[in-house]
Amino acid sequence: MPLFFKISHLFLLLFVSTLSSSSSPFGYNHPLDSLTLSELTQVKTIVKKSYLLINVTFHYVGLNEPEKPLVLSWISINHPTKNPPREAIVITRIDQKTHEIIVDLSSDSILSDKIYDGHGYPMLTSQEQNVAEKLPFTYQPFISSIEKRGLRLKEVVCQSSTVGWYGEKRKSNRMIKLICYYLDGTVNLYMRPIEGITIVVGLDQMKIASYLDRLMVPVPKADGTDYIEPKPRARSNLQLDGKRIMQPDGPTFTLDGNTVRWADWKFHVDYDMRAGIIISLASIFDDDKGEFRSVLYRGFISEVFVPYMDLSEDWYDRTFFDAGEFGFGLSAVELQASKGCPENAKFLGYSIYQDGTPGKMPNVICIFERYAGDIMWRHTELAIPGEVIAKVKPAVSLVVRMVSTVGNYDYITDYEFKQSGSIKVTVGLTGMLEVRGSMYTHNDHITEEAYGTLVAENTLGAYHDHFLTFHLDLYVDGHENSFVKNNLKTSRVINKSSPRKRYWTVVSETAKTESDARIQLGSGALEMVAVNPNKKTNLGNKIGYYLIPGSATGPLLSDDDYPQIRGGFTKYNVWVTPYNKSEKWAGGLYTDQSHGDDTLAMWSLM
Ligand SMILES: *[C@@H]1O[C@H](CO)[C@@H](O)[C@H](O)[C@H]1NC(C)=O
Ligand SMILES: *[C@@H]1O[C@H](CO)[C@@H](O)[C@H](O)[C@H]1NC(C)=O
Ligand SMILES: *[C@@H]1O[C@H](CO)[C@@H](O)[C@H](O)[C@H]1NC(C)=O
């Protein structure tokens, strides 16, 4: 039962087979392991062999995961010599067409090769972005624009920006816009946008397709924008540095391939160039039953929708899909102990298709135990005469972290496994604001709609959202699950049976259709539970996991606004759909310039 969640500013908590892992003769250990370096190389060779002398660009290469029943039976049989088929899904551009290719690695062959002709394009490659970002520097009109502004070309840096879709009927080519910034005395280029220049690059021709220099707006000053090693301003800052985490006996989790065991938890952790972290087959050991009980079959970030609210000419189209357009995994950065992960962290590297070739992504995920003096459970008993009983259990958890730097923003994704059996998912947002250069130097001068807040002289921080949507395929204590809404309903005391006037009670409702399970949070007192309807506790209660949202919001745009059509999956905070392996990406498989016809909002039935 996949559950899609959407949250803004962001976090949700969610809370329910067994898995065994052993080394195999196949070079990978587990049917859900992402492709190894040699498998990626094999993919490249197989695809290139069938397109000799033709340029092929690889936009996405990932594991075509086996169907869920196959994986579950592999686990229960515990027989590594009978591994499910090992396949890759490859999205390429060949001769200006998008191909969706399934490669069978065991037979070294292409199983299918389909041309996708619908709306939208695959993820951008980092290579093509890098090439495009250099084009303006040999383009005379751009050189003149920079000179006209009194700026020095060698201090200019350009960055790719996707263009979205605004109702055009005609299918447009693959293209991006470039947004240019000025360094000259700072490394914080995002604070120094060069406004008024529109550069459209046709990606298939790799040429500047249109260029416009409209207006001159001052480039914000470099002063005060530096962020590298800021000088401590006060004694207290000095004292805050240098905190250390000691774990003299080493970590208490173990890694067997990609399978992590910690406390009662067991789960598989992997990496995908689009989704980033993928947690699979999370299960928790039940001491009473002497067995692992399943919780989460597969969980990952499905989409990250970031629409800006600035309608000015160079800004209205900044409506990004950070996973589907730029790749949340592709944008991940190398992590280091004591720089983003604590000193007791262990680091995992994976293989990835990047810059036109298979390579390694070292230290892209870190895993560490967290203990910060918090309390998991406590009680002080004072009611017993002559006795004070105080019992405390400290909260220790295990965190799996990745940091994706998508342009100016850095997303810190944490999956935190707790001893209580819950999994807390947090996405922290840091980095730089995306700002617009402006005439204004003081708030009192602003008389028109500014679409943001003046954050420094000549610098407007634009209003925008970050909607993070998670795909959570829960299998709580077994494969068959239902989604239950526990509505907290108030009733009036109708006779004099009680001195009270009102009370509330729980009215449970099992979702029968997909539309029953669409939820806009905040519209009533509601608990959401994924239960296994076939199992009960010894007391006869349902067995399930609560989905505990953080502060969730919804979109404020109307259904007919083009970005909102593409991001229609944000309309509800929770959607529940039946298992379908190909319905992974809430914004559709081809998100760049999508028209919203392949989103979760379209798959979900009334
Ligand atoms: C392949 O790409 C190279 C470099 O981008 C280019 O020079 C060449 O003309 C391309 N070949 C074909 C057949 O398109
Ligand atoms: C009063 O109402 C309660 C429930 O609201 C009910 O159980 C009870 O029987 C009622 N008593 C009388 C006297 O009607
Ligand atoms: C799975 O999803 C795809 C894409 O939405 C759809 O085309 C296909 O019919 C679905 N398969 C099943 C069995 O529902």
Automatic annotation (TrEMBL):
The modification 2',4',5'-topaquinone is found at Y409. One of its GO terms (biological process) is amine metabolic process. The lineage of its organism: Eukaryota, Viridiplantae, Streptophyta, Embryophyta, Tracheophyta. Residues 122-219 form the Copper amine oxidase N3-terminal domain. This is Amine oxidase. It comes from the Eukaryota. Residues 1-22 form the signal peptide. It is an enzyme of class 1 (oxidoreductase). Its cofactor is Cu cation. It holds the Pfam family Cu_amine_oxidN2. The keyword Signal applies. Residues 244-604 form the Copper amine oxidase catalytic domain. Belongs to the copper/topaquinone oxidase family. SUPFAM superfamilies: Amine oxidase catalytic domain, Amine oxidase N-terminal region. Its EC number is 1.4.3.-. Keywords: Copper, Disulfide bond, Metal-binding, Oxidoreductase, Signal, TPQ. The keyword Disulfide bond applies. InterPro entries: Cu_Am_ox_TPQ-bd, Cu_amine_oxidase, Cu_amine_oxidase_C, Cu_amine_oxidase_C_sf, Cu_amine_oxidase_N-reg, Cu_amine_oxidase_N2, Cu_amine_oxidase_N3. Residues 30-115 form the Copper amine oxidase N2-terminal domain. The active site is at D322, Y409. Contains 1 topaquinone per subunit. Topaquinone (TPQ) is generated by copper-dependent autoxidation of a specific tyrosyl residue. GO terms for molecular function: copper ion binding; primary methylamine oxidase activity; quinone binding.
